[in-house]
Amino acid sequence: MKVSVNWLRELAPGIDGSPEELADHLSMTAVAVDEIHRVGAGIESVVVARVEETTAHPDADRLNLASITVGTDEPIGVVVGAPVRAGALYPHAPPGTTLPDGLKIGARKIRGETSHGMLCSERELGLGWDHSGILELPPDLVPGEPLAEALGFPDHVLELDLTPNRADLAGHLAVARELAPEGGAGLVLPSFGSSADAWKPTWIDGASDVSAAGVRVIIEDPERCSRFLGIVIRGVRVGPSPAWLAARLWALGGRPINNVVDATNYAMHELNHPLHAYDLATLRGPEVRVRAGRGGERLRTLDGEEHVLSEVSSVIADADGAIGLAGVMGGEGTEVSPTTTDVFLECAVFDPLRTRRTARRAGLSTDASYRFERGVDRTDVEKAITRCARLILATAGGRAEEQAVRVGPPPGERIVLGLRPSRVRQVLGRSFEREELTGLLAPIGFEPANGSGKADDTPLRLYVPGWRNDVTREIDLVEEVARRHGYNRFEGGAFAVRPSSVPDDPAWDRAERVRRLFVARGFLEARSASFATGRRAGPDAVELRNPLSAEEARLRTDLIASLLDRLEYNLARGRRDVRLFEIGTAFAAGRDDEESPALPLEDLRAAFVVTGGREPEHWGGETADVGLWDLKGLAEEVAEDLLGAGVTPILPDAAERIAEAGLGPVARWLEGEAFELEGQGRVVGLAGRVMASAVDAPRWAAPVWAGEFRLTAVRLDEQAAFAPLSPYPRVGRDLAIIVSEKRTVSELEEVIREACPPFLDSVWLFDVYEGGEIPEGSRSLAWRFRFQAADRTLTDEEVDAAMNAVTFALEEKSDARIRTS
Amino acid sequence: MTEPVQLVDALKRIEADGLASIEAADSLEALEALRVRFLGRSGDLAGMLSRIGQAPPEDRRAIGQAANTAKRRLQEAHTSRLAALESAESAGVAQADLTMPGRRAWEGGVHPVTRVIDEICEIFRELGFSKVRGPEAETEWYNFQALNIPLEHPAADMWDTFYLADGVVLRSHTSPVQARIMETHEPPVRVVVPGLCYRRDPFDPTHAPAFEQIEGLAVDEGIDFVEFRSTIEHFVHRFFGRETTARFRPAYFPFTEPSAEVDVSCHMCGGSGCSTCKGTGWIEIMGSGMVHPAVFEAVGYDPERYTGYAFGMGSARIAMLRYGIPDIRLFYEGDARFLAQFR
């Protein structure tokens, strides 16, 4: 929302300070000022010129020659590229001018004709964006006058970032009230001339249906419109606005249209009430009613768009049909035009919610709908419409009918709110005297009402001004106190350490444990938006109602989906070694929750993806790619260190079981190289090789491995427990056997452990051999044993006996035979 | 009386003999043989010491001293000769090019946003805040109404929200967790809530449709605006540095009142104005304020008894400030060249 500093100073002459200081003051006490623009700067040498006559350029079809004067009799010749009227005023940039956009003006020949300077468009002057023609100036300017000075420029415009509660600051008067040292007491409405200012209407009241001055006004649905005021002005001369009025609108980025329409816009910017002027001759009846739209009803609005209406929309209608979208935009058929002589002026209070729906349905957001959606002041509609009527009288002439229409209930009693000084202290942490409180609040309209007590905990009774419909309870007044006093003056406290009844969510500790493990293993942490492409989302993916794009239309059902996207991003940039992990949420449809059945299931997960070299390439030897046993080793570490789970190969018939675990699409895994991480009978994770068809990878890419597991399965109890260190020597033995391929290592190791005495310290497979002298269908496996007792030095006899027991068990139970040599 | 003297003399002879031999050793092998002969478990010195028990008790001290001296000198001589022989030996061997790179393992890294989240949460944990979380998919009630945000009101437009179904949204801020925590816990409540939020902003240099926020909430008897301000200032000083100042500006959030926007002085220009702070000297870091009584009413707290404050900040945005990252998309692309910078 834009406000003009010149206008603010006119409304509150006591406002002091540079535009920057005013902006800072507003930002620190009321509303943020995003930007400060200068308007009408850099055009100091542009003067008002009158076109005396125009002739066609002898040598160019689209150019004209204009003879202009700038206050003397001496004609100046300029070449113009757009039509101009003899007798009208235009901005003239004489040779030597540099315009705000950097254009340097000289005397130059255009196709053989000398142009002494140029006539400018709105855009060339920095007054707007229009560049379609030369800017015709208000007729009350005087040729030869410096334009900027005549328009009261330069001006500064503050761009306010209005919050929804302070829509009242969309009006200059309210902003001036915030800035004026004496507040509301320092405000003055500029005079429009004594005869115009003298005019006063007599209100003809009614609850819902009133006729006066030859117009009937009906509010059919009081929920849509609580007040509707109308004034008839006859015999106006529609024409250009005077320069001062045009300058106000230019400064705010608007464009003068005609003196009637400009008056409604001026009053809106001043008093924050949208107004609308109808060409009375076009109103059928003449009547105006506020009602619901009718299904199929059509309306062409001022912007030329045709709308098909429904009951949702609030409309203004005459006896024939809809003529405007209530509170949003007027209709094309009833607008004020140069031929209009009689005007019906409207100022109403339209319901915020109904206006919002009307505007939304029409796909419009206008200055009017913005204000009505946030609520306008019900108590000063009379003031706004009277002021607008006076401005029309002053600029367009005519005669206003004394009788004016006023429909709808009058505003009720002024609202009074209590403010306890004790409450102010409780919330703000600083004591304010009662006088201090009124001193802060009265200037912005919260004046003391009768019946205020004196005690600290008896409330100060304050009137809520009509324009502050955001203030509805005591805490709103507390905020007013705080901001008027200045937030940064509440100093002196110390930060406090206090207890909390809320325990930490263990998910964060779990995430931290996972993060430590993966970072230590050389993985980089990734973070993804939680969306999945259709290709990557599982069958039960949750769809967004209003996605931004097809790529982001579903929620991911697993994190590997995101990591594969990240992986492809890196592969596409020529990186072969990628090691990523992520901790985040996966979503699935269907929470069985009676209260909110549409809430999806959320599952915190951790996942990783890895491809490329096992370690960075080194000159000292060839680097192998990450393979099945690297993946399994990582899976084992995750399972044992984090999950207290085991790693089991996924058997061909386990697809259903995996699907039930709900860890994303089963089809992603390459059969025969995938594992499940299983704890307490539950599948809590998966790991393995990702099928090549599931990744968009270049030919040079290495196999892709991945894994994912539930964060809730991560154990919080530290595994570590101290075991005393034996001081006695350790004895080592190796054992090699030849055994059928059908015997798995895990079942053989079970046999070994069962056969061993308790002083077995550790045993591990260290060699596997097939072929050569080993018979077909068998393989040679070799284990290394470490024996150590806690309480004595083991004798050779004891260890030999243990190894014999192992050998015997393997021969008996597993049909193995010892491999000698 | 002769026995101790003999033993001491013998020790001195061994010492002298040993020192001379060690000094004369011309190879590592020869030196090792001497070490075994003089200092080994069955060496000369050990042999002498085994006889110490036969000496009269009053003499043992002198013998022990002589033995220790001999042992120490021999060890010193051995160590220094060993070093000399090693150096001489390696000098003859062809030297490797030691400028060649060493063998490395892959290095992992914690995401910059995670680092910032951890750092922020740690500062508040020191003040007694616990670290909690809440669901990312929410009901309209928790995302809006419980926070005093009426639907179909311009205030609700402050958050352009993704819908999953009627009444179900992806949370557009972490604030719903405020209501969830207060519904299930009695004051005193002090929590920080990191988490992902969603808004219908397409990816661009400063927006992401999903982004991290940290919510904070403190409710107790006797918490006021002054305490709120000093707590946030403490945070600003701890996180951004002592030289950074904070300022509080009026703002509007339906669930806090008074509401405040918190700015910090620009770390790039120190407040004189630059491109980072768009010439203002200040950078906005959080929305905050005193918890609105309507929020207390919605969760069944007595607003006359309890007061509190709440704040929310964009962790990704703060990570951009902290590391000078110009484009928020870098956080979510997963480019290893980017992530590897944070190790």
Set out the fold topology:
The complex is a heterodimer of chains A (821) and B (343).
Chain A (H helix, E strand, L loop, with lengths): L1 E3 H7 L7 H11 L2 E8 L7 E10 L7 E6 L6 E5 L8 E5 L13 E4 L2 E4 L1 E2 L27 H4 L4 E7 L10 H8 L14 H5 L3 E5 L2 E4 L2 E5 L5 E10 L8 H9 L7 H13 L4 E4 L7 E6 L5 E3 L5 E3 L5 E4 L4 E4 L3 E2 L12 E8 L1 H11 L4 H8 L6 H16 L2 E2 L2 E5 L8 E4 L1 H8 L5 H8 L18 E4 L10 H12 L20 H15 L3 E2 L5 E2 L21 E2 L3 H14 L5 E11 L12 E11 L16 H16 L2 E4 L5 H7 L7 E11 L2 E9 L13 E7 L20 E10 L4 H11 L4 E10 L8 E10 L8 H19 L2 E2 L3
Parallel strand pairs in A: 11-24, 13-16, 27-30
Antiparallel strand pairs in A: 1-10, 2-10, 3-4, 3-6, 4-5, 6-9, 7-8, 12-13, 14-22, 14-23, 14-24, 15-22, 16-19, 17-18, 19-20, 20-21, 25-26, 28-29, 30-31, 31-35, 32-33, 33-34, 34-35, 36-38, 36-39, 37-38
Chain B lengths: L1 H23 L3 H12 L4 H6 L7 H35 L20 H14 L4 E2 L5 E3 H4 L19 E3 L2 E3 L5 H9 L4 E10 L11 E11 L4 H16 L5 E5 L5 E10 L16 E10 L1 H7 L7 E8 H9 L6 H4 L2 H4 L4
Parallel strand pairs in B: 1-5
Antiparallel strand pairs in B: 2-4, 3-4, 5-6, 6-10, 7-8, 8-9, 9-10
Structure, described:
- The complex is a heterodimer of chains A (821) and B (343).
- With 821 residues, chain A is α+β, with helices and mostly antiparallel strands.
- Chain A has 19 helices and 39 strands.
- The longest helix of chain A is centred in the C-terminal third of the chain and has 19 residues, at 796-814.
- By secondary structure, chain B is of the alpha+beta class.
- Chain B is built from twelve helices and ten strands.
- Chain B has helices at residues 2-24, 28-39, 44-49, 57-91, 112-125, 140-143, 176-184, 225-240, 293-299, 315-323, 330-333, 336-339; strands at residues 130-131, 137-139, 163-165, 168-170, 189-198, 210-220, 246-250, 256-265, 282-291, 307-314.
- Chain B has a seven-stranded mixed sheet, sandwiched between helices. In chain B, strands 2-4-3 form a three-stranded antiparallel sheet.
- In chain B, α1 runs parallel beside α4 (57-91) and α2 packs antiparallel against α4 (57-91).
- At the A-B interface, α2, α8, α11, α13 and α14 of A face β1, β2, β3, β5 and β6 of B.
